[in-house]
């Protein structure tokens, strides 16, 4: 049972918990949030929305993600997580179902707003709960594997959209995500709600976690670095298939293949960066991660066409989950007493810059810019994020957090 004493938790239970977390990220990130990316070109072709309206709808979803992360800062205890996690999964299911029922722009934006709120809560609370549970068992590095769910979600969303493209239209295109989400969300939520994570006892004179500062000389550079990562990755992860549609002929394999390539790379990402974090330390690995991710977004700007799209998909797909995983672990190593609250604060910063990405793209397109040149925003953001990463102090234990 997952509730067994930390010293005698069977390996099977350890991995089932990680699998449950991965499934929740698959459902909320892959089938809730990022399925919108491969759907967007089809929704535009169906005449349901324009590219500019699509960017606006995406912005509402990212605003919701930010609000969800802020909610997770306010309600960050284990008892709060046990209430908010199942409620958020229910909101995900209802708002995805709502997308099958309307093509009204306002209704779509509202549904995506609340879907983003649910996604933000789950993306903070499920990994935070699992990380705390694993830390008690000295197995924190296993937490990286739950982010495989993001890559699998991208792959599943790509398959659902492309396989149903010729027999569904408009609002109908959301039905596969609804049908698949229900059983997956049910099983994974039930599994995580069984976890026993005790409330951390306070030492004499210790500041309560909810009262201690989130921002100090150690954490501020990490927050700023994470902000750059959020704005940098979100442009290709929102508009890559649409960019392929703009740049490539109608029968090119990368029209659907770019998102598929990004998905496969994302599946490999947690293992790659888990290994590098264990080998050289999480902080050096994070700095390397920024350089690779920056090269990916830059490729889409300076190499327009199939080569640039493929390089962007592969490099961004193989890094952005690693950025999340490494940053969360570094943050906890810098402030181990903060736990889920610090995780929620970092995701809030990440969410704010993600929200800014589609909004800035919309302004750029309406001012006469192109989608290709809009990716330059991501290049600048990632460059700044990389610079700030070099100002983050090395946590104790040479940057490793498995303690």
Automatic annotation (TrEMBL):
Coiled-coil spans are none
Q: Which domain of life is it from?
A: Bacteria
Known Pfam families for this protein? MFS_4
GO-annotated cellular components: plasma membrane
Listed InterPro entries: MFS_4, MFS_trans_sf, Sugar_transporter_CS
MF (Gene Ontology): transmembrane transporter activity
- Record's protein name: Predicted arabinose efflux permease, MFS family
**Organism classification, top ranks?**
Bacteria, Pseudomonadati, Pseudomonadota, Gammaproteobacteria, Pseudomonadales
